[in-house]
Amino acid sequence: MAKERRKAVLELLQRPANARCADCGAPDPDWASYTLGVFICLSCSGIHRNIPQVSKVKSVRLDAWDDAQVEFMTSRGNHVARAAFESEVPPFYYRPSASDCQLLREQWIRAKYERQEFTHPERQEPYSAGYREGFLWKRGRDNGQFLSRKFVLTEREGALKYFNRSDAKEPKAIMKIEHLNATFQPAKIGHPHGLQVTYLKDNSTRNIFVYHEDGKEMVDWFNALRAARFHYLQVAFPGASDADLVPKLSRNYLQEGYMEKTGPKQTEGFRKRWFTMDDRRLMYFKDPLDAFARGEVFIGSRESGYTVLDGLPPSTQGHHWPHGITIVTPERRFLLACETESEQRAWMEAFRKVVDRPMLPQEYAVEAHFKHKP
C-alpha cells in the first residue's frame, strides 16, 4: 500500500503545472507541502520548514504518505494553489526564480502562504501606497561604515530621497525614479538583506548600498521601488501593456567580477578592476563597493560598429591574467584580461548578447552622450 500511495503522488508530477516548483519555477520538484497541496524544490522546502504553522513538507520519493494526504495532493496541486494564493499579485511585484537570493524567495513564500498578501490586497499597502519612509543602514561613501539613514520614496515627486539626519530639512541625495535601479547583492554587500541602488547623477552611474535587519522590510522597499517605476512607466508609455513594462522595473546585472584593463594608449600596465555589465553600460571600479565608477564604456550593437573578440592583439604586454578579451567600439579598442577561462567565457557571452541585440532609439542618445564625454 505504501508503495502504491507513493506511486500515486509521483504520478501527480506528470501534470504540467506540477513539473516545476510552485514557488521558484525550478524544474523537477521532489518535495511537497501536504498542508498547502503544492509541489516544491528542495531549496524552497527548506523555507517552508520555517513556517510549520502553515506548511508541512515531505519528500515525494522517500517519505511515507497516507490516503488522506494523497487525496489532498490530488485535489490540489500547483495549478489550484496558484489560483488560491496568487489571485491578486500586483503586476510590479517581483516573482523570484530559482537563481534569486534566499531573501527574495523566502519573502515571496511568506507573503503568499503566511501573510496571504495576494488574497487580501489591503495587506499590500507597504509597497503599493505610492509613499514610503523609514530607516535603512546605508554604507558611507568614504569610510565604508554602515549608518542609519532616513529614506523617503514619493511617487508624487518621482523620487527616492535620503537624509543624513532624521531632522534634516534638505535631502542628501534625490534619486529620480526614471533612472533608478535596485538589485539584491548579499554576497557583495556582506549582508543577506543587502540591496544595491543605482541612479544617474550628471549622467554617470552612482551606487548606494543599503540593508535592513528585517527581511520583510527590505523586500517591501524593493517592491515599493518597482511599484514607483511601474507607475512612472505607465505615464511615460501610455500604450504599453503590463507585459512590456514589467521587465523594465528592475534589472540584475548581466555579469560582474574582476578583470584587468589597460589605458587608452594600451602601453600602460594592466590594472585589476571590478567590472559591472549593466545593460549597455560596462562600468569599472577600483573596489566593488565604490560609489562611483572609475570609467564607463557604452557597448552598442554590431550594426553600429561594435564587436567583441576572443584574445588580445599579439603585441600586448603587461597583463598578468592569460585570458584576453578585446572590445572594439567605433572610437577605440578596450583590452581586458580574465583570470580563468570560464570567467572569460561568461564575459564573452554577456558582451555578445548585448552586441547581437539591435539598439533602441533611446539608446542612440545614450551612445551620443558617451561619445561627448571628456
From TrEMBL:
It is found in: Cytoplasm. PROSITE patterns: ARFGAP (PS50115), PH_DOMAIN (PS50003). The keyword Transferase does not apply. Keywords: Cytoplasm, GTPase activation, Metal-binding, Repeat, Zinc, Zinc-finger. One of its GO terms (cellular component) is cytoplasm. Gene3D superfamilies: Arf GTPase activating protein, Pleckstrin-homology domain (PH domain)/Phosphotyrosine-binding domain (PTB). GO terms for molecular function: GTPase activator activity; phosphatidylinositol bisphosphate binding; phosphatidylinositol-3,4,5-trisphosphate binding; zinc ion binding. The keyword Repeat applies. Residues 7-126 form the Arf-GAP domain. CDD domains: ArfGap_ADAP1, PH1_ADAP, PH2_ADAP. It comes from the Eukaryota. Residues 129-230, 252-356 form the PH domain. It holds the Pfam family PH. InterPro entries: Arf-GAP_dual-PH_domain, ARFGAP/RecO, ArfGAP_dom, ArfGAP_dom_sf, PH-like_dom_sf, PH1_ADAP, PH2_ADAP, PH_domain. This is ArfGAP with dual PH domains 1. The lineage of its organism: Eukaryota, Metazoa, Chordata, Craniata, Vertebrata.
